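User: Sorry, what's this?
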Amino acid sequence: MALNDEVRTYWEQEACGTQKKVVGGLEKFSRDWFERVESHRYQVEPFIHSIAQFTRHHGKKLLEVGVGAGTDHLQWARAGLDCHGVDLTDEGIEATRRRLEIYGLNSNLQRINAETLPFENDSFDVVYSWGVIHHSENPQKIITEIHRVLRKKGVFIGMMYGRYSIASLKMWVTYALLKGKPWKSIADVIWNHMESIGTKAYTVPELKNLFSTFNNFEGTPITTPAELHNMPKWIERFIPSSWGFFIAINAEK
């Protein structure tokens, strides 16, 4: 089975952030179910709003690569953008469609592999992708396609995983050191144990290289609440943001 097929099989089971520990016994795709998903997402990733700045882009044409459960896509639609979204899974497309319907909003949604986007050159003002591209078999193909469909001065906003982080170290201890395999690399552990098979994580210079065709690139590591969970407050103060598992990206064409 090709890697992207394995990735799709994994995420068809449930869109990101919709696991049972989040939604409990709520009816799937009900308003309460979606509201629980949204509440949890912005509780564990409270920085999304300040990075995306949804309302700042009112009236622009947006493409979201990897719509997932539609939580961020709803914010873009609420902010008055001309929304388009793609996802590797039917689950993500259906969840997003139903999420928007609850609020009487619309988007042009398509289930496709984003390594080949079905849009003309220079089609979008904004492309957004939060925690998605690193799951692809070939992230560089997606980034090349994003650059192609963005208009001049268009912007990519998103997040990709950081390799040298608190979360990565915790995973390495669990799946390498404590398994008696300390020679396993962090990259190998993330590939095999972080969500779908084949997940990748990067350094900021590596991401800058992936986005080298863009005129401007900013990569900003962010420590997440999950990484700092159960850590004494006095220790948190000494942890640099460069150790964060999330790298927020802003790149202008």
In short: The chain has a mean pLDDT of 95. The two ends are 35 Å apart (CA to CA). The domain at 3-163+198-226+241-252 is CATH 3.40.50.150 (Rossmann fold). The longest strand covers residues 150-161.
